[in-house]
Design brief:
The protein has 119 residues and is mainly β. It is 0% helix and 49% strand. The relative contact order is 0.32.
Length: 119
């Protein structure tokens, strides 16, 4: 059974960097053909795809967030990390790490972590 767990600060100040880590257990992030995504849900809004990192280390970012986003991984720890730069209150959301690279492929989700951007 694959499990994902997000970790990181729950409060970030405007203009600073949001950094979250997802620890994966029960499966390797380097397993062939699997992709590992970050998705968020702002309050009162729908889910928004931020990007993913693939089994080979390839990355994809949402065009609307691409200029501020970086997703990396530590294969020795079986973790992948989201970095979102220059945050604003509009980045306040519940952030999820998820296995899958397309909406219809999403099968395992972390519990989600609330991140609030506020001074």
């Amino acid at each position: 059974q694959v499990q994902l767990q997000e970790s990181g600060p729950g409060l970030v100040k405007p203009s600073q960097i949001l950094s979250l880590t997802c620890t994966v257990s029960g499966g390797s992030i380097t397993t062939n053909r699997y992709y590992w995504s970050w998705i968020r849900q702002p309050p009162g809004k729908g889910l928004e795809w931020i990007g993913y990192i693939g089994y080979s280390g390839s990355t994809y970012y949402s065009p609307s967030l691409k200029s501020r986003t970086s997703i990396s991984r530590d294969t020795s720890k079986n973790q992948f990390t989201l970095q979102l730069n220059s945050v604003s209150p509009a980045d306040t959301a519940v952030y999820y790490c998820v296995r899958g690279g397309r909406w219809y492929e999403l099968d395992y989700w972390g519990q989600g972590t609330q991140v609030t951007v506020s001074s």
